[in-house]
Amino acid sequence: MRQTYKVLAGLIAILVVIQAMTMVFATAGFIHWIDDGNTADPSVFKAWEDTPPDFVGSLGFLVHGMSGTLLIPIVALLLLIVSFFAKVPRGVVIALVVVLSTALQIFMGIAAHSNPALGLVHGLNAFILFGAAVAAVQAAKGASVAESTPAPAA
């Protein structure tokens, strides 16, 4: 179970990195699309779901949204469930931080559409989520080392 905990935590860290990569890819592609003479007026955004603009990087918006609202939350919940059985020191607490920061990410990501300043919190919280995931991996590694080290002879 400890290995499962470590793998799930590592997967969350990797997915957070992918989140950042896909958002920058999408944003850079969008800016390039505008620089090529296209216009980002309200009609583009209204039609986005039915006929999204076809620019390099546009898939990044979809990957970012789907991963952030579906994949990471599922993995985070699995991490929390596994944490109760993995016997990782502070494992449940760290998994709770992962779940709570994931929930905050979803809320801030959606709310930032109405209040762009919340995007700042969304970006900052991504680092917190990443750090918590890495801390979970480290806690699981530390538990493995502690168990495999023989006790000193008395």
User: How far is the N terminus from the C terminus?
Assistant: 31 Å
Q: Please, how many helices? A: 5
Low-confidence stretches: none
Give a short account of the largest sheet: none
DSSP strand count:
0
Average pLDDT, all residues: 90
What is Rg?
19 Å
Shape by Cα distribution: elongated
Helix and strand run: HHHHH
Q: Which structural class is indicated by helix and strand composition?
A: mainly alpha
- In terms of quaternary structure, what is this? single chain
Tell me the number of structural domains.
1
Percent of residues in helices comes to: over 70%
Strand proportion, as a percent range, falls in under 5%
Description:
With 154 residues, the chain is an all-alpha fold. The protein has one domain (2-144). Helices cover 78% and strands 0% of the residues. The protein has helices spanning 2-35, 42-46, 58-86, 91-111, 118-148. Helix 1 (2-35) runs antiparallel to helix 3, helix 3 (58-86) packs antiparallel against helix 4 (91-111) and helix 4 (91-111) runs antiparallel to helix 5 (118-148). The protein is elongated and about 75 Å long. The two termini are 31 Å apart.
